């Protein structure tokens, strides 16, 4: 319906504005301060980044209620990957926030999202630019695996701090003999992360073929 289409357009516009601000801010800061800006990336743009990622949870709801025709599982995996790495790994460990990998990760995320939300906004209005369509369904194929590698590296960097501080590790009192050592949880999640990457890459290739291989451009999220 027109109302739902307008709602999705406003949602995409809000995400576009947020990610464009982050992306532009990162570039300007790097051009102004050079490498010194990398260590301060999280503190300068972290709040907006967290708001954008929290807002992206609505995309799962959009698929569940049927106003977005994307596949649920690939989108769910992509969103949860970011939420876990951003809020559980990076946000909880101040020592990790100043690492260069955070800047690399934010750059990859926002480059992908600026293109994706630009494409989505125009698609809501029935406007399709072939170069933008090609970029939307092609850029994610090399950049998504790079972002997964950056996520994995961020988790590996955080492990010593989770071990030292005991963050999220739980040891239940007597008479229970059950405990959760969070570094082990993160190591197991690394396996899930890379297994999910294979599934999502396969989905990205199938979407690219559906939109570009046959020359039929559809209004569908990447």
From TrEMBL:
Catalytic activity: (3R)-hydroxyhexadecanoyl-CoA = (2E)-hexadecenoyl-CoA + H2O; a very-long-chain (3R)-3-hydroxyacyl-CoA = a very-long-chain (2E)-enoyl-CoA + H2O
A GO term for molecular function: very-long-chain (3R)-3-hydroxyacyl-CoA dehydratase activity
Subcellular location(s) per record: Endoplasmic reticulum membrane; Membrane
The entry's keywords: Endoplasmic reticulum, Fatty acid biosynthesis, Fatty acid metabolism, Lipid biosynthesis, Lipid metabolism, Lyase, Membrane, Transmembrane, Transmembrane helix
EC number in record: 4.2.1.134
Taxonomy, superkingdom: Eukaryota
InterPro entries associated with the record: Tyr_Pase-like_PTPLA
Listed pathway(s): Lipid metabolism; fatty acid biosynthesis
Family, per entry: Belongs to the very long-chain fatty acids dehydratase HACD family.
The name this protein goes by in its record: Very-long-chain (3R)-3-hydroxyacyl-CoA dehydratase
């Amino acid at each position: 319906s027109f109302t739902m289409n307008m709602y999705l357009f406003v949602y995409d516009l809000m995400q576009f504005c947020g990610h464009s601000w982050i992306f532009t801010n990162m570039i300007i800061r790097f051009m102004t301060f050079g490498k010194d800006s990398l260590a301060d990336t999280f503190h300068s743009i972290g709040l907006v980044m967290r708001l954008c990622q929290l807002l992206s949870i609505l995309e799962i709801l959009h698929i569940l209620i049927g106003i977005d025709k994307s596949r649920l599982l690939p989108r769910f995996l992509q969103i949860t990957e970011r939420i876990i790495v951003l809020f559980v790994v990076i946000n909880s460990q101040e020592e990790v926030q100043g690492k260069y990998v955070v800047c690399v990760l934010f750059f990859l995320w926002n480059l992908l999202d600026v293109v994706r939300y630009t494409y989505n906004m125009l698609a809501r209005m029935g406007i399709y630019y072939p170069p933008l369509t090609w970029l939307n369904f092609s850029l994610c194929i090399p950049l998504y695996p790079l972002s997964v590698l950056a996520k994995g590296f961020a988790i590996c960097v955080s492990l010593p701090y989770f071990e030292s501080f005991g963050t999220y590790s739980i040891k239940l009192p007597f008479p229970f003999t059950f405990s959760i050592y969070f570094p082990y949880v993160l190591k197991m999640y690394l396996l899930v992360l890379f297994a999910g990457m294979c599934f999502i890459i396969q989905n990205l290739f199938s979407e690219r073929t559906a939109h570009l291989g046959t020359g039929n451009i559809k209004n569908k999220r990447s």
